[in-house]
Amino acid sequence: MKPSVGIVGLGLIGGSLAKAMKHFHLTSRLVAYDGSRESLLQARAEGVVDDFPQDPSQLADLFRGLDYIFLCCPVQVNLEYFRLLQGCTDRNTLITDVGSTKEDIMAAVRSMRAQSAFIGGHPMTGSEKTGYKASNPHLFENAFYLLTPAGLSDDQQLQGLLELLSSMGAIPMVVDPQTHDFFTAAISHVPHILASGLVNTVRCLDDSSGHMHTLAAGGFKDITRIASASPVMWQQISLTNRSSILQVLDRLLQELQGIRRSLADLDAVGIYDFFNQAKRYRDSFQDKGGRPLVQTYSVTVDVVDEPGIIAKIASTLSTHGINIKNIGINNNREDDPGVLEIVFYDKKSQQDSASLLSGLEYPVYVL
């Protein structure tokens, strides 16, 4: 029997979850709540949502007895809704969230001695666009989706959630909350801090005519692009993952102090080793995620995960004389939109491919 599902927060992630579940026919009933009545009305008109409360006071009654509830708001707001929902749920209801930090919310849920089961969740996908209008049913296809059970649910509930997410095309992985927060601190949170730090450094060092601002291009723009993310969101993430971020920052400072020492001492071997070790490790990624610290010519394309899609795109580009350096699925899309990543040898090929694929009505993002 298909499960009944509730979603609190119909933004990009919540809206995409709802659309994916409807698209793949995964639910018997889907209800939702959002602060925007416009989003709720649009979702119901599209057949994505079966029902929604007319006002917040009706939320508990509408969400009573559901199999799954997804909390898709900021961490503190998710906790408020989690408390509210305790009056209408029991151990048969599994509540999960979509936040990018896990230790804080898992500890808070555990301290409540909640009636419902809980599994932390973190879909590693996203878009530069926000809101329900930006949501799409294929957002999770071939994207990592991290889960942190931590003893607040049973094995059957975890297996059910794994199957539900896999049915949407996601790649679920189970980790403990501490490991999750440490990993994301290293590969996501500290890179955002570093990008913002580089931008602030240039801002402080620039002259009154703004020459650095004018000249900044290529590699600098590539590695600092994520500094344009929401300051409010990253303030919250930094505060909720403080311990892990501090650990990673301390290790980063050791690296920076090491290369500074090598430069001051004219230690050519130390300088070479610094860059060579980074290059060897970065090259081992095989362009499956992240951005190298050099100029690249890439685009990402939002496509439906179906047999032959990579060959179809590659053939289209080849027919128009555009050579591809590398092509593959982008599994971690928190900072990079687009399912399919294509790397080219030069800027002209990048621009030509973007124009060609956009003309064929594929959503294309130039990186």
Automatic annotation (TrEMBL):
One annotated GO biological process: tyrosine biosynthetic process
Segments forming domain ACT: 298-367
Molecular function terms, GO-annotated: NAD+ binding; prephenate dehydrogenase (NAD+) activity; prephenate dehydrogenase (NADP+) activity
Pathway: Amino-acid biosynthesis; L-tyrosine biosynthesis; (4-hydroxyphenyl)pyruvate from prephenate (NAD(+) route): step 1/1
Sorted UniProt keywords: Amino-acid biosynthesis, Aromatic amino acid biosynthesis, NAD, Oxidoreductase, Tyrosine biosynthesis
Oxidoreductase recorded as keyword: yes
Pfam family, one: PDH_C
Known catalytic reactions: prephenate + NAD(+) = 3-(4-hydroxyphenyl)pyruvate + CO2 + NADH
Enzyme class: oxidoreductase
E.C. number: 1.3.1.12
Residues of the Prephenate/arogenate dehydrogenase domain: 3-293
Protein family per UniProt: Belongs to the prephenate/arogenate dehydrogenase family.
Name under which the protein is recorded: Prephenate dehydrogenase
Source organism of the structure: Anaerotalea alkaliphila
Lineage of the organism: Bacteria, Bacillati, Bacillota, Clostridia, Eubacteriales
